[in-house]
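Extended Data, panel c. Modelled sequence:
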Amino acid sequence: MTSTAPRGRQPGRVRWWTYLLLCAATAACLFPLYWMFIVATTDTATATKMPPEIVPGGNFFHLVGLVLETVPFVQSLLNSLVVATAIGVGQAVLCALAGFAFAKLRFRGRNALFVIVVLTMTVPTQLSVIPQYMIMSELGWVDTLQALIVPGLASAFGIFWMRQHISATISDELMQAARIDGASTGQVFWRIAFPIVRPAAFVLGLFGFVTAWNDFLWPFIVLKSPERYTAQIAIKALQNSYDVDLGLAMSGSFLATIPLVVLFVLVGRRMVAGILEGAFKG
């Protein structure tokens, strides 16, 4: 049997230009973060001059001190952590429950209801702001963190994601065997289905966490008190109506980005593995 690989090239060997392209792509992705740090160590005049500075300045800790004096930034980071964690965990669990129901349970109107859920993804988020605010006002939740958490505990995309993953990974025969052994629907989900789809639910939870952490529009509308600001609203509060201190704003932005960088370093490999597992099984 003859090999079809070109002569002089080992099978599976990566060429040098592949590494060059990967390094270039990595540099392009990291440059905005590096430029943010450069501006966070200088003033507005230095940040806007041409040619631009490529070496960090020495004002970072001074600007960080100004950030902490101007707004309760540490409390804002904690608020963002609480909101993002609750939404991430909620989406991982609730969307998995809904996806399991749509994928494996038989009930009247299942397909029509799933179509409605999918169609809600076509509705712009801005259209739901007014009715959502009216609901929060009736509940007395304006200027509270639960006004941010409760609307984000489930998403149409998350339900669709988990429904497709459960359909592809959990066979009907496995569920029938569990029911023959006397397992209820809840036991089938928690003891069989959820452990199998846990990587996909983990990835969905991470997506929900990052989305909630970076959300600006809804927190900006519903939050009024500085002690309840999230990180993104605290960054907006660093800018006045007439002038923008780029160094101050970028210092706050850099501080708000650090938790996401740490999160990716800690769970990045598991996140990629969960995405690839869903891609191969779906």
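The mean pLDDT is 85. This feature is highlighted in the accompanying rendering.
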